[in-house]
Design a protein that fits this description.
InterPro entries: FANCC. By secondary structure, this protein is mostly helical. It contains 32 helices and no strands.
Length: 558
Amino acid sequence: MAQDTTVPKLNFEYWLDKAIQWGQATTLESQKDVCLHLPQLQEFLHQLYETIKHLGPTVAIQQFPLIGQLLGRLCWNPFVIGYDESQKTLMWCLCCLYSSEPQNAVELKANSWIRSLLCHLLSSSKWESNEAETSTFISALGYTSADYYCHLVKNMVASLVTELRENQFNGLNIQESISASRVNAVSIFCVPLITLPDLTPLLETLLLYHGGSSKEILSSEFLEAVNEAFLKKKISLSESAVFSLWLRHLPSLEKATLHLLDQLFSIRLNSLEEVARVIEDSLLPQAASHPVIFRIVNEIFKNALMETDGTSEVMTIIQVFTQLFVQAHQNENKQHKFPLKAYFPYHHQPLVRALVRRPSELPTTYWSQHVKHISDMLKALVEDTNVSSLTDLFEIWFLVACFGEWLDIAAEQLLKAAVEPDPVLWLLAFYYCPKNENQQRTQTMVEAQAVYSHLMMLFTCTDLSLEDLEAAVHRVTGIEQCCNQRFTTHLLTYFLLFSPGGHKIAQECIYRITEITDTSKEVYNLLIRTAYRFNHNGEENQRTVKLLNELLQKLTLK
């Protein structure tokens, strides 16, 4: 509410006259006079701030028509802004005059003028441009110009941070709390100066600040600018500040996710360790521990997969992200950990729990049993009459695809004869051909079973030639349906990796398949996924790892 204020009580005209007399304190006489009056001036500015902080810009200007002239002159006086808390008080007074929702050209112009004053107060480069006018004062203190303004910025930022934090704890005291419009104004004033290193504590305090308003109190321009600077690595922020930024401004989260995808598409996926490093550096897997962030990021990945027609590169990126998310979620403090249902609210929870189990959590002897359990649950879901739409089917498929590590383990267990074949063949057939229109999945199963049977007859042979695999290769290269071709290529590639005699002919065989079928990217992504799994779980022998590296190098050169 507006408060009754009398100008004489504040000696407004007196201090305006003084400000005009002083100018920018360029003469020795004016400098001495400023110094003599600084304590009283600071008291006056504090009273002025207490008077106008609840008025709103329009009422404040009505009561003090010349307030802009007074504050503007004082902001350019180096002795005034260098004294104690005068600079901070001037800043708060300017915030009180800022219109968060300007209604006309006059208010827009006033906002622009206020922003320029705040930039002047905060930017050391602008202060240093007035070095000739301030050198007397700075030299008297024994500082260089750069040192002086560096300390000035740090002190001002520290003061603002303290005030915002105290207000956060004192939010129920309405008379003492900072209004949302003034916090909004401060956020706008920070926009031109976001990359200033000394401003970082204030940026983080603003990002973590939550007033009593149900609406967002920080300006969208500020949130967008902070996100842009963070993504371009122009600033460093704490994880909590980044997570708060993405939670309170979802367009920034979307931009961060798309920025990550652009980064990964622009580099050659030489190893998934490199992919994992880039993804972890983005902080998105860690931020995804909050269910809202996870579901939004997951939705963006899903759209990217559909827009690229399900390319293996995008699927591999999603699978690595999911592994890193699971790791971050499991590392969360139990008191703050969300249940899995918060991340996958519409999915069959037993299936979710089975997929989330990391292979390293189970003995290798239990892998085959776990894979069969996943397949049985999935088949029951897919064949349920309630799953009638393609959308429902796609959602189930995407869930399984995100945890692709279990699919690769399923194919490995299948070829090592460590599992009952039919459930695993069905699981892989569903992954490569989720729709069963015109018996597509059934046909995929028939093709895969034929290739699998042929490979198993040769699995124990230690002396294999390409001619021995001719039938299997012919089946792979002769298949017209893409999903069938990818499935059987997966089986044949793993046969070459895990069979005793497959190593000798692996390069020649894979070269022939990828030349004829144009599946080099598919095979390459399968191999780097496998290498990544071996490096993390360490369950395979060095001979297989060496072959993997040779095959990857061959495909890279190709």
